[in-house]
Amino acid sequence: METRELTVVAGSFVGFQLLFSVASPLFSSTFTPGYGRLPSTKLTEWNSRLVSTVHALIVGLFCLYILWFDDSVNADPVWGEPGLVKLNVAITCGYLLYDLVLLATNWSTMGDSFFVCHHLAALYAYGYVLSRGVLPYFANFRLISELSTPFVNQRWFYEVLKYPRSDRLVVANGMAMAVVFFMVRIFVMPPYWARVFATFGTEAFERLGIGAQVAWITSCIALDILNTIWMYKIARGCYKVMMGASGRKAKEVSPLKQNHVNNHTD
Questions:
Q1: Which residue ranges run through the membrane (predicted)?
Q2: pLDDT at 239
Q3: Using the 8-state DSSP alphabet, how is residue 91 labeled?
């Protein structure tokens, strides 16, 4: 790993830590009155999720820029010039290390084995990108999934601030979260894997060596399994919200019928 990448990893680790401990409390207490009334455990997670949103926006938008404008990476997905991709991956590695430390020090309130597995799988694969500069297209493509993170965090912010689930902002964010999560984590699986399979048997693939090949494929499988599990949970939550909204509408339209049903049940 080159000095530049190590510097970016360390710098992002420290930067995200400062954002968590200094910038987030100042920003949140200024613009969100309910922030100061939260218990300490919720304050910790609030700051963590704000950092998560900032990281997701940085690397997600940088990822789109590379996909749209970095011709060398798109032309050679295995061995293309990895400069910009390594920068984006280094930022993410710094964030993942910061988040693992945060989870470890607050495990009783924030510990999540799924997140630990996700972070370790990502660091395992990204280590090859930073150390050898391989698979720049595929490493960058995986980061597009971060674009769903701000919606997931916003859902938690609404919940902890006790917004009603029927609130239009909550419903709109929930629907957007489900759609974006599906688009950037599930819908992209077939084209991603089609491009992966297209490299099998090529000279570029063989040059990777068994270590990089195993790290690449196994980490992608693990991440896609986790994304599928999370998508199922999100879809189930959206279904419950939609059914709840339908039930409330039914009560409003026909209160007498609803009362009849309740009396019959009693």
A1: 6-27, 48-67, 87-105, 169-188, 208-232
A2: 77
A3: H
Sequence-distant (≥ 6) Cβ neighbours of residue 127 within 8 angstroms: 93, 215
**Assigned token pair, 237:** 């939550």
Question: Which residues make Cβ contacts (< 8 Å) with residue 236, sequence separation at least 6?
Answer: none
Of 138, 149, 148, 144, nearest in space to 220 by CA: 138
Structure tokens, 31 = 């613009």
CA 118/CA 149 separation, integer angstroms: 14
pLDDT digits (tens, 9 = 90+) for 195-239: 999 999 999 999 999 988 998 999 899 889 989 998 998 888 877
The answer to whether 243 touches 198, Cβ cutoff 8 Å, is: no
Provide the token pair at 122.
Answer: 């990502």
Provide the token pair at 124: 């395992």
Beta carbons of 78 and 158 less than 8 angstroms apart: no
